[in-house]
Amino acid sequence: MWRFIGFRVLQSIPVLLVVITVTFFLVRMAPGGPFSSEKAVIPEVKAALEAQYRLNLPMFEQYTAYLGDLAQGDLGPSFKYPGRSVNELIAAGFPVTAELGFYALLVAITIGGIAGVVASLRPNSAQDYIPMSVAMIGICVPSLLMGPILILIFGIYLEWLPVSGWGDMPGDKILPAITLGSTYAAYIARLGRAGMLEVMSQDYIRTARAKGLPEWQVVTRHALRGGMIPVVAFLGPAFAGLLSGSFVVETIFQIPGLGRIYVQAAFNRDYTVILGATVFLATLIVVFNLLSDILAAWMNPRLRSQYGGH
Amino acid sequence: MGAEMITDIAQAEQGTSLWRDAWLRLRRNRMAVLGLAILSCFVIVAILTPWIAPYGYAQQELALGATPPSTTHWLGTDIYGRDLLTQIMYGGRISLAVGFIATSVALLIGITWGAVAGYAGGKVDAVMMRLVDILYALPFMIFIVLLMVVFGRNMLLLFLAIGAVEWLTMARIMRSQVQSLRQQEFVEAAISLGLSPATIIRRHLIPNALGPIIVYTTLTIPSVMLLEAFLSFLGLGVQPPQTSWGLLISYGAETMEEYPWLLIFPGLALVLTLFSLNFLGDGLRDALDVRGAKD
Amino acid sequence: MRWTYAARRTNPVLKVENLSVSFVTRMGTNKAVDDISFTVETGKITAIIGESGSGKSVACYSLLGLIPRPPGRIDGGRALFHGQDLLQLKPAELRKIRGRDIAMVFQDPMTCLNPYMTVGKQLMEPLLYHKKVSHAQARTRALELLEEVGIRDPASTIDNYPHQFSGGMRQRVMIAMALINEPELLIADEPTTALDVTIQAQILQLLAALQRKRDIGILFISHDLAVVADIADQIVVMQQGKIVETGNRDDIFRNAQHPYTQKLLQAIPRGGKAVELPASEPLVTVRNLCTSFQSGKTVVKAVDDVSFEVLRGEVLGLVGESGSGKSTIGRSLLRLVPVTSGQVHFDGTDVTALQGRELKNLRRRMQFIFQDPFASLNPRMTVYDTLAEPLLLHGIESRKTVGAHVLRLMDDVGLARAFVRKYPHEFSGGQRQRIAIGRALATRPDFVVADEPVSALDVTIQAQILELMRELGREYGLTMLFISHDLSVVRQLADRIIVLHKGKIVEQARTEDLFERPQQTYTRQLLQSIPGRAMAS
Q1: Could you say which of A265, B14, B135, B293 is the most buried, measured as most Cβ atoms within 10 Å of its Cβ?
Q2: How far is C469 from chain B (nearest CA, A)?
Q3: Rg for chain A (alpha carbons), in Å?
């Protein structure tokens, strides 16, 4: 198992390096410098600014210098907000996005997991069709539509919940979390159902029944673990989806998170912020993929022993 | 005597091929048939839009402003007095085009990559699939946003970028198909008959690998369309004067309090398409008996 | 704590009367079990014999409420166990009996144990659930039983996961699990079918020994009369949901009344073919053949320095258990797997060096018949396409004339001409194997490798296909390498036999010599493992 973890960690390092390199050069290749759109700037000021952002150096030296800064955890200054560093902007936005993502994941796992298991217990009955139809709606109504609709119903017509903000009013976190989590709840429900159905048709489930165990123990003791492995393996990609999904949800609900900062930076062509935020998000996603892979492998004893040790 | 035997063959009872079997099963699945019907309607309308749209694409009556659905404007008008139905029809052309073209790009790359890796096997396969594994770990969504920011909102780039993201799963599916088929005894039998590799691929591999590819294609289109809607909603995808369903939804969301129909109708068009594709995909998966294509 | 074997005895332990079970699907109602009655007595083994689809498993599973309902439906009958009718019990009451008073052992030990749970936990589960014992007591008991069923060093293996055990060991674990509550009745569903012959013999002995010691009843389900010949007391023969004959073992084997039972008995391979071995020169010569596979980091030697000859016109049997390398040898001869080293000469030419056109011409003369007729036919091609392909490829017929040839081939392998436009999935296993044989013989090859051609088929079908192969072999003047795990099948067809073990040749002899005067220990072991020896005497 440790060899497996070590192997996967080592494998992530080149991935991150590729991400950083590609992002860096992509951003640098963008047409127009950071100040070209501004009004005429005094040449000395421009030179000073360029020196501050190291734009006067050859491209490759800029790259190595950036890598050096990164190694120390420094993402550099912002183009558009002089005096603010990218680190500060991320530090301001990320906790909000993280909290939103956490609630959304909670919604997705609890609702999706329960719906999937419940549906799998009586396939092709109402107990299966109803949650699966709801899941189909969750998949086909994307967050960019789900958000406005929820606002329209619960915010404007019923006036039950606030329609924007984050932590300003009680209950203003509910709609964003549901909007962001609904799609993933739906996917988890479908994955969980498929996984459970697969496991419940296995011979060892019949063995468990032949032992005389009651059905709930057959499910909880014998089926759940194997059935949930696909769900656990999906958590990595789901996390990546949640992060990019937060771009939309934060825009809809005007939440001051990292997603909004990113989208605004995209419009402002604030390249250092885009670069820094991409590197930051990519690292998070790679780490989460790693964790979900390790967890899924750990749940499977065959894989665990295949990589030696316990 | 020879002639008599030939008539024997002509008179022989016609067997039911697996394709026919699958078609019969699909026809029994009402949701999938409904999906197929809706989808065909939308595609036909999208193709014919320039001739059948009730109003011109750029035609606007500023004085009219936003009006709810009426007999002259079936789905109402937007704040510039443009006919919403016309807007949705033209937007659908782009949304569907992105869906089909980007999926074709994904299909082309994915099938080639996966087939080569699966057929070559050994070290070639290991290197090619390791690359896919690595790409899988990349935060592509963010990359597409980045690409759109850096290179401007170019439609062609959008097709290519989305296609370049979605081919990964296709490559994995194709590879596992080719690999499992290669180990099938009927392929060994074909080898032992002396058939050339090209003939084996054409007659024995492709017809048997087609099922999962069809299913997965049907399920890739909606995720591609969602990606386009996502980017356009953020203002990073399709740009005015062109429009797409994602863009219409984003405009609609801004004014939904006063003019909810501007949100609801484009949303309905998108959701209906996604429903159709997903139900058709699920139906095809059951009909062709493809396991684990989605989920 | 002392473990006493079941104290309250009733005889018979299980009495089934007029049981009927059907499956209700959209396509209609299918009577899977039709009015059957049988008994299992204490201390005795009752065997239910039937081919696939005979309803034997459904009957036994329905007793314990283990068939899915719907689509399953019990139409009537009684199953008396301790005076209680099992069929009338509520699910909760039935659960108390399952795993405590009646336990089960299933066919495939590879899939019947939960891969996510240690063997020990699974073993203790029925005990902890049904009886008031502490965890420590359960563990002690589990260790005792593992010892009893022949697991070496239970103390250190009890916490292993199933995948760390071999197939035979897993089946021992399954048996231990079934016996842990000292049930009065054990239902064993094809418990040895998935195992190698020598392992099968061990498991059968173990079951018989455990049964004698505990004096319990066993209901033994099998498709193979030979397997139950050595252990069963009562035999019940089922066909298409009905019991066609019931009797004690000697009655059934000496004096079977029903034609179906007689057919099953005739299908048991016994005796050899008439020896008619003309001295002839070798058609295939294999010298120092080695074939290895890369498996992860280790190299597995599947075939290790094997040399032999196949004489023109003979049937050479190649016998071995799984992992013996027998299939790899067959595939190596036809270049279906790459040869690591050594030579294979066919009619004077070295096969291992051929390329392109020469290889194609060779393949016209050497053909392969595969084990699994469900996998060896392209599911998207009709019989016509399948049979026409080799004829057209090798230019034997033109597109115009190929039809007549295809029909002649169908006649030869005993398929109705009307089926020529059908697809493989529309045929039964035996019919498919006929198509596969037709394809292999289409080019009139000199040499055919048949890799377990009957082991995926029901016993009566096996006999038919073997008969067909014998006939066609004579008619086409074939030289054949016949690969099988089953000595008694090989005996029917082969002139000479080679015994393989772990990639090496153990013994090589004329068929009758091998059976009457085996020289090697391993060969003797194989011969002793052939089921049904008791019946032969």
Answers
A1: A265
A2: 18
A3: 24
How sure is the predictor about C271, in pLDDT bands with cuts at 50, 70 and 90? low
DSSP element (H, E) containing C28: strand C28-40
Query: Is-contact C219 C46, C-beta < 8 A?
Result: yes
CA atoms within 13 A on the CB side of A61: 7
Using DSSP's 3-state secondary structure scheme, residue C70 falls into coil
Q: Where are the alpha helices (DSSP H) in C336-377?
A: 356-365
C111 touches chain A (CB under 8 A): yes
For residues C61 and C67, the answer to whether their CB atoms sit within 8 Å is: yes
User: Are C247 and C235 a contacting pair, CB within 8 Å?
Assistant: yes
- When mean pLDDT is compared across A24-33, A80-89, C286-295, the lowest value belongs to A24-33
Q: Which residues of A155-173 are buried (b: 16+ CB within 10 A; e: fewer)?
A: beeeeebbbeebeeeeebb
Q: Which chains touch C (3 or more CB pairs under 8 A)?
A: A, B
Peptide bond into C12 cis (omega under 30): yes
Within 8 A of C174 by CB-CB distance, chain A residues are 207
ipTM above 0.90, yes or no: no
Chain B residues touching A14 at Cβ < 8 A = 134
Rounded to the nearest integer, the mean pLDDT of chain C is 87
Close Cβ partners of A134 (under 8 Å, ≥ 6 residues apart): A115, A186, A189
Cβ contact, residue pair B15, C417, below 8 Å: no
Q: How many CB atoms lie within 10 A of CB B120?
A: 14
Helical H runs in C158-276? 167-179, 197-214, 225-229, 249-254, 259-267
Alpha-carbon distance C279 to C312, whole Å? 9
Residues 6+ away with beta carbon under 8 Å from B257: A152, A156
Distance CA B269, CA C27 (A): 38
Chain C CB contacts of A301 under 8 Å are 115-116, 161, 163
- CA proximity to C349, closest of C333, C337, C336: C333
* Beta carbons of C55 and C20 less than 8 angstroms apart: no
In the structure, what pLDDT confidence band is assigned to residue C477 with cuts at 50, 70 and 90? confident
At B181 the three-state DSSP class reads helix
CA distances to B8, C387, C390 from B2, in Å: 10, 17, 20
Asked whether the beta carbons of residue C376 and residue B15 sit closer than 8 angstroms, the reply is no
Burial class (CB in 10 A: 0-12, 13-18, 19+), C379: middle
What is the rounded distance in angstroms from the CA atom of residue C112 to the CA atom of residue C105?
Answer: 9
Q: Is A194 on the interface with B (CB under 8 A)?
A: yes
Strands C72-81 and C84-85: antiparallel
Q: For residue B178, give how far its alpha carbon lies from the nearest alpha carbon of chain C (Å).
A: 14
Q: Does C173 touch chain A (CB under 8 A)?
A: no
- Chain A contact for B147 (CB, 8 A cutoff): yes
User: Closest approach of chain B CAs to the CA of C412, in angstroms?
Assistant: 15
Residue C200 Ramachandran class (φ > 0 left, ψ -120 to 50 alpha, else beta):
alpha
CB contact under 8 A, C378 and B8: no
Residues C499, C488 contacting (CB under 8 angstroms) = no
What percent of chain B shows pLDDT beyond 70?
Answer: 92
Nearest to A203 among C64, C108, C164 (CB): C108
Per-residue tokens: A261: 């900062």
The Cα B227–Cα B244 span in angstroms is 12
Omega into C154 within 30° of 0, i.e. cis?
A: no
Specify whether the CB–CB gap between B152 and B231 falls below 8 A: no
For strands C366-369 and C349-350, give the pairing.
unpaired
Helix (H) or strand (E) run with residue C75 in it? strand C72-81
Long-range contacts from C503-509, C-beta under 8 angstroms, 24+ separation: C503/C301, C503/C302, C503/C303, C503/C304, C503/C306, C503/C324, C503/C325, C504/C304, C504/C305, C504/C306, C505/C306, C505/C307, C505/C308, C508/C308
